[in-house]
Amino acid sequence: MGSDKKRVQFRAPHRLIDRTDALADVLGEDRTDILVTALREYLQEATHDDALIQEIAAAYYDGEITFEQLNALVGAEEAANLRVLKQQLDEDFVDEVADA
Amino acid sequence: MSRLVADASALVSLGIVTPDDPDPLALCLTRYEVVVPTAVVEELREIASYDDVHRQAASAVLDRADSFTIRPVALDAEFPLDDGENAAVTLANELDAALFLCDEFTQLGLIHASLADTRLVTTPTLLSVLVRTGQLSATDARSLLDEISDARSWGGNSYVERVRSVLEEP
Which residues of A touch B (CB under 8 A)? Predict the structure, then answer.
């Protein structure tokens, strides 16, 4: 991860940023550290939520996200399971099995 | 007749709707030469001894044991799967079976990777296949899937929802 960083810009409510800065002062860190930690923790928690994993899976089945994006969100093991399930939905696959 | 090796998870799914007419387990046993490893039969016996929702389903499958072949198989220590799945994967590879029927959605990537030339199929997809071959109507397949889905708590599963919506198309 280290030097591989991307610059992002976003708008957020004043109060949220004020609280972020206050916590940064307390911890002796900067705003970016707090935001990155918060985002990382949120993503970690969210992608362990079954309902959200199913939404991610649905987006993958419908071609809204790539296998690489899926992999980045849910990890290699779960992504491999979902890839098999996507294949099960493929009409040509069903035809091939029907001919077997 | 094509060979199909089945895992306990899928047999339990089919067993849930075995009292129904049409009965997809019966259709499966007619269409394929179904082979089941001894370890899977042992798992079914264990499930049939528990007092839970799958007890009847496992018993219903065991009642049909005359219609499938049971084969002993040595476990392959390379596969980090439970005994039944391990034995079923090994048997499918040994027999070069056409199909492997399994509903362990959380292990599918690994099982898929462990199969040599055998196609992995889940029960919802098998129902689609039976519709495609004209052995089941889409309406019957949908109600069977609903019943299996309720018993197996597949309610929020996107894959099962997608199969269901495909079965809704005219």
Answer: 50-51, 54-55, 57-58, 61, 77, 79-85, 88-89, 93-98, 100
